[in-house]
Specification:
Mean pLDDT: 86
Largest sheet: 6 strands, mixed
CATH superfamily of the largest domain: Glutaredoxin
Radius of gyration: 29 Å
CATH architecture of the largest domain: 3-Layer(aba) Sandwich
Shape: flat
Number of strands: 21
Strand order of the largest sheet: 1-2-4-3-5-6
CATH topology of the largest domain: Glutaredoxin
Distance between the termini: 40 Å
Length: 515
Amino acid sequence: MCSTLRLVSFLVVVATIQVVDTEVVEFKGAHFEDELNNFDIILILFYSPSCGHCQKLFPEYVKAAGPLAVNHPPITLAKIDCTEEEGREVCKDQGVSGFPTLKVYFNGKFEFDYEGPRDAGGMVSYMRSKIKPGDVELKTMDEFDRFVDSLENCVIGFFDSATSRMEKEFHKLSLSLSGQYRFAHTSSNAVMKRFGHRNDIVIFRSERLSTKLEQDQVKFEGQLSLYNLRNWVAGNYHGLVGYRTLMNRDQFEAPLAVIYVDVSELAEKGSQTRYWRNRFMMVAKKFTSDVKRVTFAVSDVTEFRRELSDFGLNVSDQRPFITARDAYYKRYTFTEEFTLENLEQFIDNMLTGLLTPHIKTAPPPPDSPPSGDAASLSGVRWVVGKTFESVVNDLSKDVLLLLESPQCGVRCENVVNNWNKLTNKLKDEPDILLARMDAVANELPRPYFVKGYPTIFFAARLSKKKPLLYEGGHEGKDFLKFLAREATTPLQRYDREGKKIKEDAPTTRPPKTEL
């Protein structure tokens, strides 16, 4: 990288785009984001003319532009001069801090930073490996049948012209959602005649999971646009009870109800497993309104063995298993007899808050009092799943929370040791609490998450729903400065900069009031 940029504001001018170096597009002007929308996939070089690394890269960049322009899908290469008055703010907004910087955008949106080779051949290979066609072409009936023969649904485009607007929008759709859903297209007259689709985009639901309770095929009939297509896929792809896997589980939003079965038995007509799913679908139909909407899914009992254990369920106990999560991702387990009435009542009770959630919790560690939510012998409070709400979300205290694991080792131990020393300095600060939790053995509620170990959050008294991820140093002085700055009420013995207050000096700064 060349030296760090000095980025300042610039005069707004009319945007223009110039094509230079045969295949490389040059961006100029203030309307950078609007111009991006002209390209499906684009790799942009942010550079400075005086940067030696940039000068070395330019010839290779130009060589790579030609092969990538005729790639399937086409990849445009572009550049923008970050030292010109028109480009400085653009580079700043895109997070450019050094030269050269390369970034990839899909349909006007940032996708990822380019971190591949800097020679022409390497750049072409790298981009082709990263950006593959979002859909496959089905040329024959046999290819079509093999593609749809899956437990997973798919989206298929039927086009008699490779240049139609619908075909182009379909490929944009498949590229933007590749990796999330299965896409294919066909121009085979035999296939189009068989299914009665021509210049249509259709969701095909798995034949193995077909049922009379919902359509096997859903055709797009809205106004053609990428935005509408994306919303249509997201709202219809999985149907009433979608097949949820470890790979696609993030597509199933809470509130969520899941039935766990042996999915290999779902394709068997008349099987008990198929009967259970169909009964599950009958209940799902009653929770599709905007007022009372719940996502329903079926998952494989073996694939989700670990998830079931988080609900306190043993796979060997019984089948089917049914669990649910409310909008806050609290967990619930269905334990009644499997009838339509009982299941519907279970979902209703979850939505109205009448159920007691299952919380994954470990016994309090040996050095904490029996209650599990009082200070430990070290001065740092232990938290477990069942005490998280009462300790971390205590509205009378600012809480600095350490999330650790038994395998964290010396990194977590160093934090704890520094905190133990810090508690002595905070002994006269009743509004501050240092706490720690084993994030593997205990349930971690949203919006908390683990970003490697240790992960540390600060839950201020006035912002319990929006805890702050701590990203500072791990020395005692680092934590003290942070707490002095972020504490809702100023510390009694330290100013906002973490400097010790002289005994005769009054505390002048008011408490924080922002929510």
